[in-house]
Request: fold
Amino acid sequence: MLVEASSDKLRVTWPALRIWGRPSLTDVCAGALLLWLLACAFVGGTTGPLHDAGTGFHIRVGQWITESGSVPRVDVFSFTRPGQPWFAWEWLADLALYLVWWVSGLPGVLVLGCGIIALSVGVLIQRMAARGANALVIVGLLHLIVGASSLHYLVRPHIVTLLFFAVAIHRRAAWWMVPLTALWANLHGGFAAFIVSLFVLAAGLFLEGRAAQGRRTAIIAAACGLASLANPYGWHEHAHILEYMRAGWVTQLVDEFHRPDFGTTEGAYFAVLMALSLAAVARMVLRGQYAESMLITAWVAAGLSSVRHIPILAICAAPAIAELLTDIWWAIPKRPESWSGLLDQIALDHAPGFRRLTLAFPVFVCVLWLVPLPWPRDFPESRFPVELATRHGTALAGARLFTTDSWADYLVYRNYPRQQTFVDGRSDFFGPRMSLDYVRALLAGPGWQWVLDRVGVNAVLLPLHTRLGAVLERSAVWRLADRTAQGELFIRR
Reply:
């Protein structure tokens, strides 16, 4: 009897395993995106998932956490603000990045980051298919989503927000979102945007006359807010994030807070995404569907104010856009024997393949790691001073060095724990005064000498053709120590 029961169990579960192990079209699309991201990293061109050395800085923060056995509360990386209060609000992501790096190096970090990005897009594809989108609409929108968001496809903690938003925002509010938010609050500050989005949805549900569901969504949003206090800094983290997001100087100095430039390729993709989002909003308003339309409108406004919000807009709007375009597609009359009729049949036949995300994708990620590919062992030389750091590593680590914030992140990664920074990528920590002093010195503006002298800068490492570099080359106080295709190093005489 036990044998028969066991045999029956096997007969029941084996087809399920075959279904969940058989690759779907969603797996194929997510896998293709993963390969594209890795190819960008292998080529080392002008874009790619390792084109922000903040990845390396986060790895070293994670290493510091491991070695100290505590979460940072004061600065340990700069010589300009040592010992000042610092909120390492992404500490758990930093720790995870370091542990992956410790086990498998930079290639492992690259696979993890690109896998999370691809998985978030795979989940979004599944949500579009669940709204009845046909196969060709999904493929077309996939191109638009990646084109508008690819600028942010970097191996940094914010990709956790992309994944968690894709998983949670298109589902009815549920209590599992509360522990998710508690985890999220220790990985990335994007948890705050999710909580606000839940309250927006709750308000829209009340307008739709669905008071019970609106009340439940608001209660769960409030519970998520309370759960987010389960971080090492408590409510002080929330106050710090709010202060940082409201700071006017940030929008001037930090690239990811800039408004979209519609003259760029990414800006053109965003323009199309915004137009389709507003078309979907108009349709939903006419139908009395206020919750989702309010959410999308809020993120359109956020996208217009800052490019960092565009990927979240794509995640929130994609299912509604897919539903709109699919309805338009089916409304167009077509003859079965025509090319349009053939496309119609292709779209209909392949739609079910996008409704599943199976075990094939994580298996593919694991197998990919074993393939002998040209895995990068360092950040791209086209963007960072790899050669200069190799030649002068000891001197740079021991100097009071002025360099760009991005290069400072890279040097912390290369020369940890000796490298100290003037400023680095933590704009929220350095604040307006230090950030403006940094820009003043970099542009050789009035008082730039005082900025460097005040903190005893004795070495300057810059990209080629900067204003400060041109001034230092003519200065009797500084000498050019080395120059490569990436940059130039000046030493105080």
